[in-house]
Amino acid sequence: MARTYDAIVVGAGSVGVPSAYSLASRGLKVLVLDRRSAIGQGENKCAIGGVRATHSDPAKIVLCIRSLEVLTTWKEKYGEDIGWKPGGYCFPVYTEKLESTLRGLFPIQQKYGLVNKWISPDEVDELVPGINRKDLRGGTWSPNDGQVSPIVLPVVLMRHALRMGAEFQVGERVTGYLQEGGAIRGVKTDKDTYLAPRVVVATGSDSAHDGEMLGIKIPVTPDVHEAGITAPLEHFIKPLVVDMRPGPEGKTLNFYFGQNHEGQIIFCYTPKPIILGQERHNSSEFLPILAARMIDLVPRLRHMLVRRTWRGCYPMTPDGVPIIDNVESIKGLTLAVGMCGQGFMLGMGVGQEVASLSLDGKTSLPVEAHSAVKFARDFWAGKTEALK
Ligand SMILES: Cc1cc2nc3c(=O)[nH]c(=O)nc-3n(C[C@H](O)[C@H](O)[C@H](O)COP(=O)(O)OP(=O)(O)OC[C@H]3O[C@@H](n4cnc5c(N)ncnc54)[C@H](O)[C@@H]3O)c2cc1C
User: Fold this and answer.
1) Could you say which of 308, 311, 365, 377 has the lowest number of CB atoms within 10 Å?
2) pLDDT in tens, 45-61
């Protein structure tokens, strides 16, 4: 006989694990399934761990405020180290245009009570010692943002969820969704069948395929990003630094880096043009481009020893905003997909919202934030015809 649960979460990544944690915290008997051999091994493991609430989209702001509330107090509450490193995000600014764009985001961020402020070149230099001062106009700094370890967090959350009765099964791929009378009934995997009146799809870059299995269109397309990590250095860079200058020959779109809780420099960039798909072998172009760029920005990094590089994906939606919603045509089905480049920082907040949608049947978000992440929305609003 098929095993029965209160809720099944498909995907044990940046979103699935906190969703399971939140559902189990609310007293549900939860099963989590992942096709990979361990939890957190999909895009979650590729993230560099930046967590900020200072976005421009209301849903991302509210969800990341909730994530930060949990993550910044975790150690105090549970005594467990999740690699939280305060220090905020700093965007050094070298052009008038970027200054005006970033200053233009302050009003919406202030509306949600966020601290993001303009700082002088000397203050940027204090946060990022030795930064290239030529044409530096200053920058923005959001002191309440920070970093958490994407390797540690899912494991810690899983342990809590296990203690609350959740079950995790890895190495098991969901191959079909059971539906009956306009409602979800459970899932079929390559090993077994499981029943539940609630199913959460948190399958990241693969979620368009879940849409096909479910008979709905989930507009999520992955694109690739490259990252790397060095041997530890003495701590000297406080924030995560986002460098928006165009790269050599306009090749890179933007690049960000920081020093994690262990002193390692961790860095990531977006290739230009964007590379669609899930080809995970990192290119030989990446490190030379990045090294030159990073040394140009912070010359003292020229001695760093790179230990490892990798490639991963952003599960993108056409409008760059996630889908976190119940599916009207399939009762009991909740989507938490399309996290783009912010799934790790959104995770805890999304988990809470998933529990609310799945269990209470309603959103916990303010109206404008919920509208932004609805499944039934025009994903192409504001896009040109050529991009469709
Ligand atoms: C280089 C890089 C740096 C990044 N840095 C940051 C950062 O600093 N901060 C940040 O917030 N975000 C960052 N991101 C983005 C972040 O990694 C993603 O947005 C996030 O991990 C997506 O979470 P997810 O849970 O949707 O997907 P995942 O973490 O990939 O989880 C989805 C899971 O579903 C499983 N799955 C898929 N299909 C099935 C199936 N049929 N059956 C069973 N299991 C299935 C997969 O195995 C996977 O484990 C970065 C991404 C990259 C590539």
Assistant:
1) 308
2) 999 999 999 999 999 99
